[in-house]
Amino acid sequence: MTHRRQWFQNGYRILLAVLVAPSFTVAADVLPRAATPFTGKIERSIEQSQHTWPQAVRAAKDAPNVIVILLDDVGFGAASTFGGVAETETLQGLANEGLRYNHFHVAALCAPTRAATLTGRNPHQVGFGTVATSGYPGYNSVWNKDTVSVAEVLRQNGYSTAAFGKWHNTPAWEITPAGPYDRWPTSLGFEYFFGFFGGADNQWEPRTYRNTTPVEPTRTPQQGYHLTAEMADDATRWLRTHDAVYPDKPFFIWFAPGGTHWPHHVPADWIARYRGKFDQGWDKIREETFARQKALGVIPADTALTPRPPELPAWDSLSADERKLLVRQAEITAAFLDYTDHQVGRLLASVQELGRSDNTLVLYIVGDNGGEIRGNLLGRDAWNADGSPGSLEDRLKLIDRLGGPEFDNLNASGWGWAENTPFKYGKGIPAYLGNVRNPLVVSWPAKIRERGGLRTQVSHVTDIAPTLLEVAGIEFPRVFEGIEQVPLEGKSLVPTFFRADVAIGHDLQYFENGGTRAIYHDGWWAGSRRVNSQTGTIWNQPPLGTRDWELYDLSKDFSQANDLAAVHPERVKQLEALFDQEAVRNDVYPLAPTGAGRPNAASGRTVFDYRAGVTRIPSGNGPNVTRRAHRIEADIVLPAKGGDGVIIANGGRWGGFSLYIKNGRLVYAANAHGHRTGHIVSTERLKPGAQKVVFEFTPDASARPTAEAAFGQPPVAVPGRGRLSVGGRTVGEGGISKIAYGPYETLDIGADLGTPVSADYTVPFAFAGNIDKVRVELR
């Protein structure tokens, strides 16, 4: 019987307790609280009556403000505060006045770490075993009411709450301008939200939301816009407004930038600061970082530097041209971390400006997982139309533009490994610490007297929520909205604020992602890696499948350098059984489920009708025209003069299609991975007035189903022919080699928001006429 069923059977006990409780009070561990009883006096006349107003819940006296900062895809050894190359002045300042934690662990991937941090429960308990959802309780991404967020608990106990940046914990099929909003930040405890949904977004031209309303960037990249800076600006505005209205009310800010998750977008002047700092290559960078870590004391003096994985080549074995490209990638990534940390500093400066720094608890988590190692040996920037990397020669021609708006770039897997010094491997492989051990820095000037201290207690992101509740003097709710709560898994870190040698009792923790497993118990670590053949990566060397369990004594082996499985086979079996116990309890099984059949707002539909003004529908929740014959029909009215602009566009610079009018001619454009793959222009200009314009796509007879059809997808219907018609007359035809949606983008009617599908116009290229209806039919 699962824990959820056990709790359900005990539910009657909670209901009975509530029903028999005095009518004028509700226990502090039940949320929401009952309405405040009226304590005035009501008589028939106003003269004899006495009014009283309901009192708002107030936080405890001197309850601290709280800021949780969570960076993205940053390895243990990336930041200079922990020995890395990237300068992190803000992080260093907090470490100087507070504490560094070097045995802190995250939950292996973006969404799982965020779910665990915000709830204090293990990620599978919240439905976030991974980021690719599947129809099993531990993986469905459906955040249920039995795992209330710490933001909600703080809010209902007198805190103001706001979230900024990446939000990766709403089911993909619920991310639309029409909702539903039940699992958006503003329904999960945050009174205000500004940021983006999904695993990543374009830092130069993002698809952001304010609360539940889509908003466009305030400037262009050429005017200096960058999402991370906009986050700091928006958080400052929120803080100043909050302070003007509620100067004595504590706040909780969740600040989660996109840095340093791909795309690695960062201003050129910041990249220039790192010119030449990675010329020695990843092997030497690991050695230098390791030496600095020992000098800083953030790793024990007897730590061993783990060797390069067999899948990665030695730096010296690469060609001069390969090294030139790779060095540039590392410079960009380091600059991105430096720039992100700088924006965090701007936020904290705003808190100081308001005179609220002293009683503000800051928890700065440097990465929701380790550095990204699952990509290509030479990284990613310029692609061919088929999605394969461009030639090294062509990529080198573009090297000085990398990091800018043109590219959806990611550094090479070797640099991700170097970021994770002194550990093995990295992101997505939780059998090793390179994926799950990340730095934590804590600062609270009013309470933490030790300056520059080091804490070595084994801790986990599930410890953050109970820590926040303890400092705020808040009891964890036993019941929320009538539903008994899954108990907290984490342990409060508060005792460690005041003593370096105190135990917090977090002596058991499992880790799992994609079938790769690990279990920590009382100083010992056992892990088993599942190796899948992954197209486009280097992590596909045999033996494939599930590898043997490895064993490490972390009390003596900080970096997992010495596998003791052959020495202690009985302990391996004990820990394997303990993992199984925890997996059953936390809904981890089945391991590595697929995402087949995932719900989608477009599921089962073949006809889609859109009216003027409909925008920002994520590409994945609209009609998937990339895989089948289709027809786009639009009823429009052109003015007497002009009438250019986009009728319908889906996608952007790195993939999509657009039907538009330019210079009076109807145009259909398609691109894949930044390459024009279709461009059809009408042979005649359109006349003013009402008319029906149509685009039809018919796949070539040679198009064949692919393996993707096995997951319920239609066969890939390219290449093919496109045909434009106006008023029933064919006005243009041409070949289309590929249609593909780029990441982050949306479907828009009457404009092309985000990045442009076609280089023939600049966004938004709003339609100058009238649009009655646009219909998309899948055939």
Could you name the key traits of this structure?
single chain; 779 residues; alpha+beta; Alkaline Phosphatase, subunit A; Jelly Rolls; 2 domains; ten-stranded mixed β-sheet; six-stranded antiparallel β-sheet; 21% helix; 22% strand; disordered N terminus
Describe the overall structure.
- The chain is an alpha+beta fold.
- It has 2 domains: about 450 residues, 3-Layer(aba) Sandwich (Alkaline Phosphatase, subunit A), CATH 3.40.720.10; about 170 residues, Sandwich (Jelly Rolls), CATH 2.60.120.200.
- The protein contains 15 helices and 33 strands.
- The strands form 7 sheets. The chain has a 10-stranded mixed beta sheet. Strands 22-33-24-29-30-31 form a 6-stranded antiparallel beta sheet, with no helix packed on it. The protein has a 6-stranded antiparallel beta sheet with strand order 23-32-25-26-27-28, with no helix packed on it.
- A hairpin with a 2-residue loop joins strand 26 and strand 27.
- Helix 8 packs parallel to helix 11.
- The N terminus is likely disordered.
